[in-house]
């Protein structure tokens, strides 16, 4: 489940909805995560960002990525993997 996404007619799945040249503000909630799990956020097919757990809850946030014009309405998803293994 993504936090802070907008429901738009042109986007029927979680997608990037932001102005260009601003920091990405996407977070996902993943219940029952182990502390040693690897969570990444993927934008479209080419961008992969390591997500960080926010406090002790189930929220993971991708940080440090500046949205590009080409990212607008690209699919965004969280993936869970084992530490040290690609997701």
Provide the descriptors you would attach to this structure in a database record.
about 90 residues; mainly beta; 6-stranded antiparallel sheet; globular
Describe how the helices and strands are arranged.
Blueprint: E1 2-3, E2 27-29, E3 38-43, E4 47-53, E5 59-62, E6 76-81
Antiparallel strand pairs: 1-2, 2-5, 3-4, 3-6, 4-5
Structure write-up:
By secondary structure, the chain is mostly beta strands. 0% of the residues lie in helices and 32% in strands. The chain has one domain (2-81). It has no helices and 6 strands. Strands 1-2-5-4-3-6 form a 6-stranded antiparallel β-sheet, with no helix packed on it. A hairpin with a 5-residue loop joins strand 4 and strand 5 (59-62). The mean pLDDT is 78.
Quick structural summary:
The protein has strands spanning 2-3, 27-29, 38-43, 47-53, 59-62, 76-81.
Cα end-to-end separation: 18 Å
Number of domains: 1
Major beta sheet, specifics? 6 strands, antiparallel
Strand residue percentage: 25-35%
The class by helix and strand makeup works out as mainly beta
Low-confidence stretches are none
Backbone CA Rg: 13 Å
Trace the largest sheet across and list its strands: 1-2-5-4-3-6
């Amino acid at each position: 489940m993504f936090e802070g996404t907008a429901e738009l007619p042109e986007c029927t799945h979680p997608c990037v909805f932001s102005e260009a040249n601003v920091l990405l503000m996407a977070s996902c909630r993943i219940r029952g995560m182990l502390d040693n799990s690897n969570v990444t956020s993927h934008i479209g097919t080419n961008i992969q960002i390591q997500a960080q757990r926010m406090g002790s809850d189930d929220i993971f946030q991708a940080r440090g990525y500046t949205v590009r014009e080409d990212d607008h309405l690209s699919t965004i998803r969280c993936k869970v993997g084992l530490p040290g293994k690609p997701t």
